[in-house]
């Protein structure tokens, strides 16, 4: 066994819990951060040590490179894991960690630089022989140039902030009037959200599927851990994910081809950690490179369920130069089917964030059900952070079984005190086109599951009755 390492988790919520579990499993010391606006954070329960990160907003805390490095040095930290979001894809943070003599648990700074800029990554992808969506050769600086590029490729087009992500800095334009209207808006959004106003233009593909390939690498080898489908989205943000992709289905030649393409791109940037290469796939199953996320993904659990590979554990091992749990691509295979439903504090009809206090919750984990969450009675979900509070994951021997398990799991998941999307997820998993696997990124807009939804809520008294009845039934067994 390797020497015990002290690993600081520069994140919060469910991903901080997931990282802490992986760190503890490897016999290392997990160190969690708490802030002034979240002093009783649930992830601390899974960490061996707690450290105060002063500040009451994300700029002062989880985005504060200097303060995090200072704390890490003071507490004799060996490595820092960023999770996802915040500083996870910030190459300046990587260099600061390494300059301070610590290990960054993630990819090298150069890979983050290359893949973090959409214009650079698209150019590199073309050079590596990876198919890309038709579009501008690079940054489009003026509205005149935007009109010319859009006219040549034909509408609709997509304006994309080069440093964008999470659905921000993206506008679809169906004609020149919409292009004129949105051009400066995307530049402003890119500058405000990412500190970079530059944008590029791509051909907008109607009714695409969003397919992504999980990469796992160390300093010597790069593997793919097969694909996930993430086509059910709202505002370019994922709602339901599954693996394997129902759209690829039994087409093993296509599956191997898209996975090999992802590996080729990762090799082109000397990738050396866990990461995800994202593609959009047309109705004829042609696929095009979209972007690479140089971090662990929210939806990584479904890949873990169908392959048996712990991505977080191997990410940590890779960072320390230790052998991965696998030694060849042939050792990695898919078995069964997994689905993830993101549980969010949001209005299930408007799909907008709905902060509040969780007064109580209850769930039941049957065989093949996993719930990664950061929920406890009394926790306040604030506008400071992403509204996602949990991920419900089911695994079955096939897709029908995974769906059946998800239906049952959602029925037993109760949240009291704030609006949430559990009822919306129930509608989706019972809807015919989802059950058939026949859906695209237009699912929410076309099927409109939220319109058939009647909000269901529980009073505190009803919830207490529910919990007590479940407790009594368990005791009686």
Explain what this protein looks like in three dimensions.
This protein has 15 helices and 20 strands. Residues 472-477 have low confidence and may be disordered. An 8-stranded antiparallel sheet has the order 13-12-9-10-11-14-19-17. It has 3 domains: 6-105, Rossmann fold; 134-203, 2-Layer Sandwich (Dna Ligase, domain 1), CATH 3.30.1490; 209-460, ATP-grasp fold, B domain (D-amino Acid Aminotransferase, Chain A, domain 1, 2-Layer Sandwich), CATH 3.30.470.20. The protein is 34% helix and 24% strand. It has helices at 13-25, 65-74, 91-99, 109-116, 118-127, 143-153, 176-194, 252-268, 300-307, 311-319, 399-411, 422-430, 432-436, 443-447, 460-476; strands spanning 6-9, 29-34, 49-52, 79-81, 103-104, 157-165, 168-173, 199-203, 209-217, 222-234, 237-243, 274-281, 287-293, 337-344, 356-357, 360-362, 369-373, 380-381, 388-396, 414-416. It is globular and about 60 Å long.
CATH-defined topology of the largest domain: D-amino Acid Aminotransferase, Chain A, domain 1
Helix content: 25-40%
Mean pLDDT: 93
Low-confidence stretches: 472-477
- Which structural class fits the helix and strand makeup? alpha+beta
What characterizes the major β-sheet? 8 strands, antiparallel
Note the gap between the termini.
42 Å
* Strand adjacency order, main sheet: 13-12-9-10-11-14-19-17
CATH class of the largest domain: Alpha Beta
Structurally, how many domains make up the residues? 3
Strand percentage: 15-25%
Gyration radius from CA atoms, angstroms: 22 Å
State the fourth-level CATH superfamily of the largest domain.
ATP-grasp fold, B domain
């Amino acid at each position: 066994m390797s020497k015990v390492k002290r690993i600081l988790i520069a994140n919060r919520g469910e991903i901080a819990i997931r990282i802490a579990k992986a760190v503890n499993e490897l016999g290392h010391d997990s160190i969690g951060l708490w802030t002034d606006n979240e002093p009783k954070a649930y992830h601390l329960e899974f960490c061996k040590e707690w450290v105060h990160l002063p500040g009451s907003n994300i700029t002062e805390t989880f985005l504060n490179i200097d303060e995090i490095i200072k704390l890490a040095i003071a507490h004799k930290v060996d490595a820092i894991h960023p999770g996802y979001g915040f500083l996870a894809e910030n190459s300046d943070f990587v260099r600061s960690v390494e300059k301070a003599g610590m290990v960054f648990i993630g990819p090298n700074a150069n890979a983050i630089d290359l893949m973090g800029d959409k214009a650079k990554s698209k150019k590199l992808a073309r050079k590596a022989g990876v198919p890309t969506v038709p579009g501008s050769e690079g940054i489009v600086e003026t509205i005149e140039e935007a009109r010319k590029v859009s006219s040549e490729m034909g509408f609709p087009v997509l304006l994309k902030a080069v440093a964008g992500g999470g659905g921000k800095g993206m506008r679809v334009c169906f004609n020149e009037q919409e292009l004129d209207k949105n051009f400066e808006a995307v530049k402003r959004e890119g500058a405000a959200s990412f500190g970079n106003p530059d944008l590029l233009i791509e051909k907008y593909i109607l009714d695409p599927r969003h397919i992504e390939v999980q990469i796992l690498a160390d300093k010597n080898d790069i593997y793919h851990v097969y694909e996930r489908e993430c086509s059910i989205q709202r505002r370019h943000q994922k709602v339901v994910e599954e693996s394997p992709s129902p759209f690829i289905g039994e087409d093993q030649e296509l599956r191997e081809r898209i996975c090999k393409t992802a590996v080729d791109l990762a090799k082109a940037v000397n990738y050396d950690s866990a990461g995800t290469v994202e593609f959009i796939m047309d109705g004829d199953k042609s696929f095009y490179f979209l972007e690479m996320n140089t971090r662990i993904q929210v939806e990584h659990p479904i890949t873990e369920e169908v392959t048996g590979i712990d991505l977080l554990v191997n990410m940590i091992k890779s960072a320390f130069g230790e052998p991965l749990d696998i030694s060849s691509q042939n050792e990695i295979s898919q078995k069964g089917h997994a689905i993830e439903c993101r549980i969010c504090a949001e209005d299930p009809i408007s799909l907008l964030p709905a902060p509040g206090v969780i007064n109580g919750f209850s769930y039941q984990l049957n065989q093949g059900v996993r719930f990664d969450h950061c929920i406890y009675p009394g926790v306040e979900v604030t506008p400071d952070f992403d509204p996602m509070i949990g991920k419900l994951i089911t695994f079955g021997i096939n897709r029908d079984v995974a769906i059946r398990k998800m239906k049952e799991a959602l029925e037993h998941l109760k949240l009291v005190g704030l609006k949430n999307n559990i009822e919306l997820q129930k509608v989706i998993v019972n809807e015919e086109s989802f059950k058939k696997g026949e859906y695209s990124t237009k699912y929410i807009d076309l099927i409109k599951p939220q319109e058939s939804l009647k909000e269901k809520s529980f009073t505190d008294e009803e919830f207490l009755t529910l919990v007590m009845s479940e407790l009594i039934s368990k005791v009686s067994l």
